[in-house]
Amino acid sequence: MSTVYLNGAYVPADEAVIPVLDRGFLFSDGIYEVTPAYRGHLFRFEAHRARLLRGRCELRLEGDTGDLEKMHVELLRRNGLDQAPVATVYLQITRGVAPRTHAFPKEPVPLTVYAFAKEYLRPSRERWEQGFTALTVPDRRWARVDIKTVSLLGNVLAAQAAVEGGADDAILVRDGVALEGAHSNMFAVLNGTLVTHPASNVILPGITREFILELAEELGIPSREAPIQVEELVTADEVFFTGTTTEVKPCVRINGEAVGSGVPGPVARRLFAAFLDRVEAHGFAGGVPL
Fold it and tell me: Is the domain 3-119 a CATH 3.30.470.10 member?
């Protein structure tokens, strides 16, 4: 039985209860964050915490949440994941429990803080070598995608469209621009340059996205942040997705058409190898910042 964290207590998952008047349930009035841990050591936790704090400020979620880093580590320990090769901690904060009305509660109420940990099972190397597939779908999300809110209906519908279309992921398209995946950021290699959409309100700037850009610079891979026209995907040398629960996943077919040579390309390979080296070192080094 897994142990979760709810409002200051560690409880069995099947005993955790959130009132039906919680604004997260009624309005999706909350934010979330997912932080990876390699052998029990949180990776880039400060970046994840900074994004969470930005989201709290944007939504004006005021209140005490306790020591979040300590809670993350304790959740991993209580669930036997402190030595797991890879695990993730999901954290959700909502505006709390109050009578249903669209405006904020007139009197402040405690935030609802919920978290759980689970092991991440990385695809086998054989599966990775096959590459992954995607479909392009219209982006129907709201105008503040940069805030990591729990309102993910647009992402859910996009992911379901991919499932029904026999693909592994969806690429969200708005005004002719390919933005990102249903739950990940997207990179393309265009004429030898690594390109990803600029950080703005129409994408969620990922922590892994930022890390991949850093690795590209270290490896001498030319990169830039620029909009990717959907028609450029047809002629791209490579396309791949990145994210906390994605790491680096090469996309070898889009809408049934091969990307590049139809197999994971050299840029994705170099970046994934560097990514694995770095996170493995992080885990074995006891979480020393890298």
Answer: yes
**Tokens representing residue 55 in the block:** 């989201």
- How far is residue 152's CA from residue 158's CA, in Å, rounded to a whole number? 10
> Are 194 and 240 spatial neighbours (Cβ–Cβ below 8 Å)?
no
Instruction: Name the residue with tokens 């590049």.
Output: 260
Is residue 119 within 8 Å of residue 82, measured between CB atoms? no
- The pLDDT of residue 283 is 81
pLDDT tens-place string over residues 240-281 = 999 999 999 999 999 999 999 999 999 999 999 999 999 999
Interval 180-225: pLDDT, tens: 999 999 999 999 999 999 999 999 999 999 999 999 999 999 999 9
Q: How far apart are the first and last CA of the chain?
A: 34
By DSSP bridging, strand 247-254 and strand 257-258 are antiparallel
Query: Do 27 and 102 touch, CB atoms closer than 8 A?
Result: yes
| Residue whose C-alpha is closest to residue 61's, from 114, 5, 111 | 111
How many other C-beta atoms lie within 10 A of the C-beta of residue 269? 17
CB 6 within 8 A of CB 66: no
Catalytic residue list contains 148: yes
Residue 196 Cα distances to 122, 146, 187, angstroms: 23, 15, 5
DSSP 113: E
Domain parsing of the chain, residue ranges: 3-119, 125-281
Q: Contact, 91 vs 48, CB < 8 A?
A: no
DSSP per-residue string spanning 52-83: HHHHHHHHT--S----HHHHHHHHHHHTT-TT
Q: Which of 106, 118, 148, 249 is catalytic?
A: 148
Which alpha helices (H) appear in 200-285, and where do they start and end? 207-219, 232-235, 266-284
What is the fold, at CATH topology level, of the domain defined by 125-281? D-amino Acid Aminotransferase; Chain A, domain 2 (3.20.10)
